[in-house]
Amino acid sequence: MIKENIARILAELPAGVELVAAAKTRTPEEILEAVQAGIRIIGENYVQEAKRAYEIVGKKAQWHFIGTLQKHNVRVKMLEIFDMIETVDSLEIAKEIDKRCAQIGKVMPILIEINSGRESQKAGVLSENAEQVIKEISSLEHVKVRGLMTMGPRFGNPEDSRPYFIETKRVCERIKSLELPNVEMKCLSMGMTNSYKIALEEGANIVRIGTRIFGERSSL
Ligand SMILES: *Cc1c(COP(=O)(O)O)cnc(C)c1O
Predict the structure, then answer these.
(1) Where would you tag: which of 32, 55, 85, 87 has the fewest CB atoms within 10 A of its CB?
(2) What does the pLDDT look like over 12-28, one tens digit per residue?
(3) What pTM, to 2 d.p., does this model score?
């Protein structure tokens, strides 16, 4: 099932778009199966789950952190696993990543998460603050801003997500036009199972898909 799902998605994704398999709550065996079926990037929300899956998948795939990031989660072992952190939303957390990456001689590619729905309970930077935060982060030597990520509000109708994707793309283009040193606005991570087709139409080049690959989640 996982294999067929992945084949179907990969066949329809335009060239240049990366598929991240959003793996929360899945077993290491399911994740390995996905990698064997052609998944090149695993998205993990929880460090503990990532560590478990990493033990059997290792470097057969790349690892993106896509969960809510707290300072106490930023540890050397975690930074060794992940190839990109998609959910940076403050200078403080970027500084923590920078400090720990300096200890292991790594430069971490990061995306800045945009709270495009302006939801008070959601993580992310508001659009109008993105430029300032990115300017501050750009001086750090061991992180490199590579673009933006957004979740957007959850809707039943995917079409309702479109304005939030348009907004995030607009912010991305504006910051790209500033040509800030040490900043490369080339990744735009938007869209999940129910919204990724809309996200692609609005310029996403990374989509994060869980349910359509692995089936419905039983919890969380
Ligand atoms: C769970 C999750 C996804 C994927 O969600 P699905 O609806 O299962 O495709 C994408 N991005 C993030 C940040 C997630 O937590």
Answers:
(1) 55
(2) 999 999 999 999 999 99
(3) 0.97
